[in-house]
Amino acid sequence: MSFRVSPTADLDEFTQAVLAIGQYFGMEPTRERMERFSRNLPLERMHAARADGRIVGGAGSFPVELTVPGGTVRAAGVTVVGTYPTHRRRGVLRALMRAQLDDLHARGEPVAVLWASEETIYGRYGYGMASLVGEMSLPREHAAFALPFEPDGTLRLVEAEEALRAFPQVWNAVRRSIPGMLARSRTWWETRVLHDPPEWRAGAGPKRFVLLERRGRPAGYAIYRHKPKREDGVSDSELQVLEAIALEGSPTAAIWRYLLDIDWAARITAHLLPLDHPSSTSWPPRGACACGSGTASGRGSWTSAPRSPPAGTRRRARSSWRSQTPSAPGTRAAGASPGAPRGAPAPSRTCAAT
């Protein structure tokens, strides 16, 4: 069975293509939600597969800038890839992936990155595992640092408007030195990072924003939620750390010391942590350090190379990674050998299966 794949032409087509995967996650595709989503994912970057004039699958890609060893490159953040249940196992995904990779090649984007909800799928299309991530679930009684620490700087809670001005300054300072991190547009901050509709909270409270300043300048921030719970009359609440970013060294320790000290939290949880996060290296909490519990790791992002990067970028990356601090947290470039240093660039390829 053949399918016609082309970019969506209007918001209605965009919605139908997104719903190919969104339906499995209980998405209610209101017009307001789809308009907000399309501010980050342009209609022309959302491909739709059609059969008999009806949309039966979709695949999108955010335009992003990816930090690599030695600089940055244009990249595609592949997202909302799915097939309608009426057309499973008929070649819809293959047709979508072929059209998308051809489109990225034409756009001159040398890297495609995705988060594989089913990791067995994407290897056949040229993707390979590129990073590992950690997660934390730390009982409050084990939250003391193993080494003494005196925080430096001033912490204060801020509203979303001030967070929009201050947090990107920290993010941009950090992400330029860590391969695998992405640039964020103002729209991304507004509609994804700081946006907080009740349906995203899953029983927890609203997002809280805390800013760390040193000598009057932003040096770190955290976004978190309280999820209250009582068990047999005793607080069993969870503090959910959604994002905690700070400059290397003391600011990172200070922002985490704040989070670990928040009252009325029986447990502190965090996800998408780099494997070399300081919580497990420089200043591990006593409980996690002593017994090895409280943290776990899993597979993170997957990458593919729709086309080779510009020659100048490739040369800069290869000549500079050796002198850098190994700062790609848990990241290995697709195709790099298991013994290669973290952050070493992958061999040049054109969508060969990894």
Please describe what this structure looks like:
The protein is an alpha+beta fold and 354 residues long. The chain is built from eight helices and 16 strands. The protein has helices spanning 11-22, 31-38, 92-107, 160-175, 186-193, 250-261, 286-291, 311-320; strands spanning 4-7, 46-51, 54-68, 71-83, 111-115, 128-129, 132-139, 154-158, 208-214, 217-227, 230-231, 234-235, 238-246, 267-273, 295-299, 301-304. The strands form three sheets. A seven-stranded mixed β-sheet has the order 1-2-3-4-5-16-6. Strands 8-9-10-13-14-7-15 form a seven-stranded mixed β-sheet, sandwiched between helices. The longest helix is centred in the N-terminal third of the chain and has 16 residues, at 92-107. The two termini are 27 Å apart.
Distance between the termini: 27 Å
Q: If strands are numbered along the chain, what order do they take across the biggest sheet?
A: 1-2-3-4-5-16-6
Number of strands: 16
Pattern of helices and strands: EHHEEEHEEEEHHEEEEEHEHEEH
Computed over alpha carbons, the radius of gyration is 21 Å
* Silhouette: globular
Largest sheet: 7 strands, mixed
